[in-house]
Structure formats: C-alpha cells, structure tokens
Inverse folding.
C-alpha cells in the first residue's frame, strides 16, 4: 500500500507542474522575479511534498519564485506572524487556523480574496466544500482566506468485533443504534462497545451538534451550552460510561498522547468494538482489521461533527504584484491535482471537491476507505461558531467534559457551571 502511494505521489508531482492555470502573467516583473515567502507548520514528510510542489510552481512560470519557511507549530506561526506584521516584514502567504486568521482580518492585517477571485476565470466557489470554505468568509461576505485542507473526526470499528456480535456496521446510523446493539457486543466478549476519544470535549460536541445544540443564542449575547439539547447528549454519554459500562475514555487529565494510543490499542487488541478518532490514525491501519465509518447521528438526525479548516491567508503589506503572486500560488496549492497529492499523503480531507476528478485519486479511493468516508462526512458537518472570548467557552466545555467522562458528574451540573463561567467571559468580551 505504501509503495503504491509513493508511486502515485511521484506521478502527481509531475502532473501538478502544469496545473496552476494562470500562474504565468506575462513573463518577469519589471524589477525581475517576484519573491513570495510562505510560512507553514507541517511535519518533515509533508514538507518534502510541499517543497516539491513549490518547485513545480516555480518551474511552471517565470514571474514568481516561492520559498517556504517551516514553522514550529500553528501557535508559533501566529505569534511569529504578529511580530512580523508589527515589524512590517510579514510573509506573502501563511497557513493559519481559522480563528487567528479571522482575528487578523478584523484588524486589517489580511488581504481579501474577492477581487482576485472575480478576475480569475478559473475560480468557482462551488468547487470547495462549503463547510471548509465558509470558515474563510466574513459576516459581510468577504473572503479572507481559502481552505487548504480540513480535519474532521470519524468512527473506526473492529471488523472482527462486529462480525462476532452479528452487527452490520452500516446499520449503525445513530448513537442510539450503537447502544441498542450493546448487549450483542458484551455477549461476544467485548468489555466496551465504544470509546469516545478523550482529551477534550470534541467528541461530545460533535454528538451535541447532531442534536441541534448551539453555543450561542441567535443574537449572540447568551451562551447556551447548558440547553436541553446539550444536556441530553452529554448526560447520555455519562450514563453509557459510568452506569451502563458500554463506553469508557482513556483520558486521565494528563496532556500527553498516551491516552490516544491506549484507546486505539483497546480496539486492536479486542477490548472495545470501536472508537472515534482522527483521519491520521488510519495511516498505519490494516483495513481488514479496522475500518472507518462516518460519525453517528443523534436519534433521527444526521451526524454533524465539528469540521475545522486550515486556511491559506495573504498578510497585508505586500505590493500588488506580490499579492497577485501569493494568490496564484494559493490557487496552485488548492488545484485538484495538488489537493489529491496532499490528502493522499496526510489523509486529511481535501477542501476542493474536484479532487474526485483526478484519476489517480479515484484509484486511491478504491484502496483507502477512509478517503471516501471523509468526502461523505464533509458533505454534512458543522462549524464551531466564532468565539468572541478567544476560546474561553471551549475551555469551559473541555472542563465540563472531563468532569462528566472521568468523574461522573451529572451533565446538568457540569454544563451549568460551564455556562455560568462562559457567560461571564462573553459579557466581558462584548463589553470591550
């Protein structure tokens, strides 16, 4: 499988060099080649691919030359970028999480994409999954960033466990369906039916969104994380963990990755029938042993897991020629061929729907069931709303999730406390 993937990636790197469309804008600029600096935080294996794609872009035209500057992580990228903006030495393109990108745009520190997209005959907004693209669109409709890729958690199940229990995995559409099959898994010798991934509130938030839960009231002035839609879902998980023994979380309050690998080991080693985790988990999976599913819905509602987008942004301060070059490079990175190469290497879902038009990616879909699940899941997912408190509401949800999953505190009690603290933070933010 890995040899097959390496061969396909090599083929993509050759195909990608001619796919940028309008990168050549009439030869060299008056002052020579225009230098474009790209900041991003990616692992070394991904940087190898990115650097090859950059070489392809540089070789596809003579007007621009892109250089990548690898950052330590997303947090350091943002702090370094703020310092560079203050020193009037910002890069031309930067990869950011959605929240800091939006924050910079509100301060006038990012260049909008709208004029570039209007002048780009190749641009079609419908080419991008709305759940990712919408995260780069401001409330007034201005596009301040373009998604490069997304991340969204999915379900993984043990093939052997479902076979032993006599449960068709495709029959499990909701959390209620899964729990109803719980006795079958117990009878088949499995200690736990499912293990929601601990470490934060994300899995519980995903399930709550499927139940119609919202973080804020419609007017944005009230935190609603203790509404009946939240409490019903979170109390159900508390019961499934602490009362029924159908579920457990390996999270112990320690900020390391041990709990994550212990969760996966429980499924591989036959203690649990499945878990909820990251697309990246599947890189080393044997799909004859563990296979993916979309996340489960809530009762009759389809799943709506929280989808996050990693955004390509254009910091302000460059010349018009540099900004055009930045746009052309972003266009190149997000074309179907380069999106296919990236998602095949990393397993993160592509932002561009047209990735499915690429013949090599179509072959990859046949070999990797996670890819197909991610594409389907991207069609129905949720966006965590913009938080004026700078993340304090999510912090409170994480604290509440720990109380519920580890300590067994009732969801009503934990979420009431979280709402109280979050509302204080929101009131302060709105007052300022």
């Amino acid at each position: 499988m890995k040899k097959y993937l390496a061969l396909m990636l090599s083929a993509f790197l050759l195909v990608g060099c001619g796919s940028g469309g309008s990168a050549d804008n009439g030869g060299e600029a008056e002052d020579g080649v225009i230098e474009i600096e790209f900041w991003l935080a990616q692992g070394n294996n991904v940087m190898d691919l990115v650097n090859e794609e950059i070489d392809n872009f540089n070789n596809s035209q003579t007007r621009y030359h892109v250089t990548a500057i690898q950052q330590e992580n997303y947090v350091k990228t943002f702090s370094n970028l703020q310092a560079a903006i203050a020193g009037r030495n910002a890069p031309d393109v930067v990869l950011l999480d959605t929240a800091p990108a939006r924050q910079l745009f509100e301060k006038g520190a990012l260049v909008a994409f709208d004029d570039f997209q209007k002048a780009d005959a190749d641009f079609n907004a419908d080419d991008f999954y709305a759940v990712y693209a919408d995260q780069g669109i401001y409330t007034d409709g201005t596009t301040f960033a373009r998604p490069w890729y997304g991340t969204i958690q999915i379900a993984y199940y043990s093939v052997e466990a479902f076979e032993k229990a006599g449960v068709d995995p495709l029959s499990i559409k909701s959390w209620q369906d899964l729990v109803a099959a719980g006795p079958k898994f117990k009878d088949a010798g499995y200690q736990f039916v499912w293990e929601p991934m601990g470490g934060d509130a994300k899995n519980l938030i995903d399930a709550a969104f499927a139940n119609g839960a919202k973080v804020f009231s419609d007017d944005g002035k009230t935190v609603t994380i203790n509404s009946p839609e939240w409490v019903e879902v979170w109390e159900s998980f508390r019961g499934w963990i602490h009362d029924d023994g159908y579920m457990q979380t390996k999270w112990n309050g320690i900020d390391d990755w041990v709990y994550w690998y212990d969760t996966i080991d429980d499924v591989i080693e036959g203690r649990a029938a499945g878990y909820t985790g990251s697309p990246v988990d599947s890189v080393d999976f044997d799909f004859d042993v563990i296979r993916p599913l979309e996340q489960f819905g809530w009762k009759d509602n389809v799943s709506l897991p929280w989808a996050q987008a990693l955004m390509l942004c254009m910091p302000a301060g460059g010349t018009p020629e540099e900004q055009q070059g930045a746009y052309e490079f972003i266009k190149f990175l997000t074309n179907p061929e380069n999106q296919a190469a990236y998602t095949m290497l990393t397993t993160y879902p592509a932002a561009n729907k047209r990735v499915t038009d690429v013949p090599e990616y179509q072959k990859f879909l046949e070999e990797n069931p996670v890819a197909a699940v991610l594409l389907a899941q991207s069609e129905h997912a949720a966006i965590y709303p913009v938080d004026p408190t700078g993340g304090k509401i999510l912090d409170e949800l994480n604290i509440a999730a720990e109380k519920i999953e580890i300590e067994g505190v009732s969801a009503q009690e934990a979420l009431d406390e979280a709402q109280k603290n979050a509302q204080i933070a929101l009131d302060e933010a709105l007052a300022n």
